[in-house]
Amino acid sequence: MIDTANGLKADPILDRGLPGLRYFQAFLPPYGQWTGTKPLGHDTTSLLELFDAQREMDLTGLSAFANALRGAVDASHYEAQIQGNRFRQVGVAWPEGAGVNALQLLESVGNRAGSDLEQLTDLADAIDSTTANLLGVVGHKADVGASAFTPEAVDGKSTDEVEQIIKYARGDFGLAEDLEARQALVRGILPGFPQDGDPERYCAAWLNEVFVAAIDGKVGEFVTLCQDTDTAVCGFYEQLVAVFDGVDQSPYPTVQGLEAIPQGQNPAQQSDTDSNSLDLVAGSKFNIDSESPDGDSQEADDDSTSSSTSRITGDENSKEDDGTDVDETDDAGSADDESDDEAEDDGSDTESTSPTAQAKEQAELIQAQAAAATEVVGTIDAAIQAVGSVVDVGSKVVEVASSAVSSVIENISSGVDLVDNIVDAASPDSSDGGDGDAGDGKDTGEDENSGEDEGADEEDSSTDSASTGQRQNLTSGSTIPTATGQPIPSALEQSTGIGAIPNVAANLSTSMAMAATQERSTGQATAVSETATATTGSSEADSELAD
Amino acid sequence: MTAIDVAAIRGIAADLKSSADVVLDQAVAAKSAATDVASSQAGRDYRQWGDRLGRACVDVAGVLAAYSQCVTVCGTALEVAASAYEQQDQATANRVAAIEAGIPT
Question: Which of A21, A140, A150, A391 is the most core-located residue (most Cβ within 10 A)?
């Protein structure tokens, strides 16, 4: 983590190297006087531009982002642990059917979150190290510049002496007209001048072989220093951007693998408005509570195709960029430490971005979020419908079973009534009608013609009236349904579609098996079906007992 | 037999959504810091790197937001599922009760 108290700006660091630039300010003019050219094509201005390439670098914001990101990741780590516990609880509270799929989804979300948080932690570390590296390489340039390009002398000669040598080399010796006087002048500046040497040629040779070579060498050294620094800075930025790019920004896993909320992308919009509201809260808060990416981003998008490579391959785009972002530069320069200025900066950025474009961006994001939510809820709806259909099947089975059981019970009641009647008729206590019942035991329909019999049945009038229909069925040749496989009444058969009572249990079992296969979680329906089956079974037992 | 503990699922869903809100707050804070990363801060000759970094910071903050959003959606999905199960269970119970009472359904 960087100590921001010491400042994360390049300008104060670069200022340390300015003394080195004075070397060139001192000797490039005489160099030009003598050669008529610029050393390696550079003058003082271009060298200063090279040296100041990192000016205005202020890594305070980037470092602050790293700290904010680290804090966010730490807090999110804690939340991820909580979520992981809740995920596992889903497996307990919803252990079957769709719950299994839900748990798988949640676990995949948890795994993805864990991976993301690790990446973000690494990113925060990378930002810190990059910040340190950037300031370090700039500091190295400044320190080398300050030390390697001083003292301000070439071969021990000051600027004035060099200019004097240039004059001598051009034959300008002032008042000294004889050779010995000129030799003395030259020997005063250049002690190595030979006893019988040519003053002009010696001075020219010194300029060409010592001075020009020294300046060329120093300029080359300085340019290399600046270029190496530039290359290093670009490299550090490139590495950092690569770390950013390495952060997984693919959509998070969703139900049935549906992709949701891709960053900055819009999946196909869905029409389910109910589900659209599901996750808009998160998306809108993220977009509204904090400023959307400033106008720079929009401009950056325009320039994104050229990207960093344009910086490396040439300065034309950079210069154009400088031209278009003058205001921004000014803002940054004046808003280093003042929040008010930062606010103004934000405002100007916002103004520089089309409100329509911002609204469009937000609308697209909302659409993306809505579509993703729709997909999720659509899947849930489908699952619910599937569950509902299974439950419907179970309910219908229960209805059929209940109807069948009711019919069975009614028939059993009829049979019991019939038996009672027979018993009544056969009873010695019966005053009348006994013969008729006894004699017509299997054809009870004929009892309708017996006035005595009607009188005997008055005690069970309600049962009789209820069983009249059954008697009619029996009269028409049907028999009482039993567990022995005898056919059920045709009316019941038509109403239920079930061929025989024993098949009811079999049908229920089949339905339950289907239900269990389709959706185990429809335990309620299955339980009801099981209850109905049990009821049917007991009814069958009752029926057998009645027989 | 009950295959889903509706109350428990609802509680889990509420906890997930609450936790997702915390993550979202962190995402918002990270994004706020990201928007302070201006292109000019990269240095006079490195504005395009600054552009990329500024956008990358916002995008990275979006990862946390997406994470939060996903957990929120999961929580909502659990709520919806629990409610659907509960409603269907109630409807089935009502239907069975009606059948037992002899009321046509």
Answer: A391
